[in-house]
Structures are given as C-alpha cells and as structure tokens.
Specification:
By secondary structure, the protein is mainly α. The chain contains seven helices and two strands; from the N terminus they run ααααββααα. The longest helix is centred in the N-terminal third of the chain and has 28 residues, at 14-41.
C-alpha cells in the first residue's frame, strides 16, 4: 500500500481504497460471524434471543431510554422498541419515569433480568472464546484495535454530511 502523500487524500489513492474495501468486507463478514455464533450460543434458551442479549448487556450498568439504547447499538429505534416490548412480556425489564423526558421512559433490569446477567456473562465469555482462542492476542493489541474501530465509527458519524441526500 502506498503511504500518505501530503497533497493527496488517502481515499483518492486506488491502492488504499482497495485495501480499505477489503477491511470493510472483513467487518461485514465479522458481523455475520458474530450474529451466527451468537444465535448458536442462545439457540436453546427460551428467554434470551440475540437482540435481547444485546440490550441486557447495554442496560446492565444503568437504565437507558429506547432511543439511547438504539443510538448506542447503532440500531433503529423501532427495532429496539420491538425487542423491549418482548423483554417486557418476558419480565426481563421494568420501565421507570424519566425525570428528563415525560414520554421517554427509562428501561432497567427487573429482578428476573438481573438474574439473567450471569447467563449473559457466560454467553459473552463463550463468544469471546470462539473469536480469540489460539489467536495470541494481547490486551494492548485488543485496545489498539478497539480504539481504531471507535475512531473510525466516530469519524464516520462526524463526516455523514459528505453524503448528498
């Protein structure tokens, strides 16, 4: 791959563009593998689906609104609302009045939801094992990749105005 030339943007370099497209292709494939493996992990669980798993993992530390959950996960609010409705039926969550917004309730774990957090932890541990076993990945390497992915995501959010609608 060519190196950055000061008077030329990387996204205009054909070699960089090709390599970045391969990188994005791997992200899409990684997402597919993540969903497939997650579905297999909770396939025999009558109370936890992958969408429920995601939301339980997000709200385990603090109550959040449906919009906040959707924003954090990068999902449509309607999709999160449908999952939250399923979670209510399964008694995994409770809604609380939001002091900052009259119509937007805070979603938090019920006692049953809290009891499922250990199961979620075990699922996440198994998922992690599938991805990193025998990879010889260090903490510092994982942190670098995480920081890089966060930077890419934040940068893409900051540059959305480039796309003409």
């Amino acid at each position: 791959m060519s190196t950055y030339i000061s008077d030329r943007h990387l996204y205009e370099d054909i070699e960089f563009l090709a390599d970045f497209q391969l990188f994005l292709g791997n992200i899409f494939r990684m997402n597919g593998a993540l969903l497939e493996i997650s579905e297999k992990i909770c396939a025999n669980d009558s109370s936890i689906t992958v969408p429920i798993w995601r939301i339980l993992a997000v709200i385990r530390r603090q109550p959040m609104t449906v919009s906040a959950i959707a924003g954090y996960l990068g999902l449509k609010r309607q999709s999160v609302q449908a999952t939250v409705d399923q979670m209510k039926k399964r008694n995994l969550i409770i809604t609380k009045t939001n002091p900052n917004h009259k119509k937007s309730f805070l979603i938090s774990l019920s006692s049953k939801g809290q009891r499922n957090i250990e199961k979620i932890y075990n699922y996440q541990q198994l998922l992690t094992k599938v991805f990193v076993k025998d990879l010889n990945l260090s903490f510092s390497e994982l942190i670098k990749v995480t920081d890089f992915m966060r930077s890419l995501r934040e940068n893409s959010e900051n540059n959305l105005s480039i796309i003409q609608q």
